[in-house]
Structure formats: structure tokens, C-alpha cells
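User: I'm putting together notes for a lab meeting next week and I want to include a structural view of one of the chains we've been expressing. I don't have a solved structure, so I'd like a prediction I can at least talk through. The sequence is below, exactly as it appears in our construct file.
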Amino acid sequence: MDAPVVIDTLRAAAKAVSGGVSDLDALRAFQTVIDSMAACQVEVAARVAESREFEYEGYSTFRSWVRAELRTDPGQARVWASTSRTLKQLPELAKAVEAGMVRVEQVKCWTYALKRMEHDAVRGCQAAMIRLATTD
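Assistant: Thanks for the context. Below is the predicted structure for the 136-residue chain, given as C-alpha cells.
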């Protein structure tokens, strides 16, 4: 997590809430924050799963903790794990996701590519794939 990048996205959204920008720009700022927070969630979830911190709260698996404490589909824990592995292997992509340029949901395309292609080939085309993901 790059705290200054996350803080910048939060500041832009705060400015939008205070009415400092058009409604369309406000919606863009809010979406960027949502995407940036999703990236943070992936990173923290990976740390929790690895440290098994959930066991201190009486849960035997991260999936059961996710279901009970976050009130979400326990399969989300699996998605976070695969996303985290992909972002660790592709640092340019990780930065783009953290900055809210690429959505966490889009990372599954890179995960798919890493499973089926040479890793060096996927790493080599990160910049082009990021441009594709951020183009309208």
C-alpha cells in the first residue's frame, strides 16, 4: 500500500463531497476511492490470511471470519488471495490498482494470463495491458 497515493484519492473525494467539483467529477473521484480501497483490502486480507490472525478471534478459517465479520461471501477470501498473488508478481499493475486506475475486478484477467502464459511475457506487457484496461 502506498499511503500517499491512497491519501490523495481520499482527498479528491473529500473535495468532491464538499462541492468543490462537478457532480460528474465527484462520481469519478468516488469510484477512484472505491477502487483504491479495494486494493488496500486485498493487501490487508492477504496479510491476515498469512498471519492467521483470525484464529485469535476464534475462527478456524479466514473464509469463516470473512463470512461472519465482513458479512460477505466467503469465496471473497479466495478472490483476495489470487488477486494478491497476481499483484505481487506484477508490480506495475499493483501500482495502477492502488492508484485506482485499474479495478481489482480487472486483475482476474492478469491472473488468468499468468496461469496460461509465460510469466515473463505477462510481465513484459504489463504497461500495454494497463493502458488497455484504462482506455474507454
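A couple of points you could mention at the meeting. The radius of gyration is 16 Å. The CA atoms of residues 2 and 80 lie 18 Å apart.

User: Perfect, that's what I needed.
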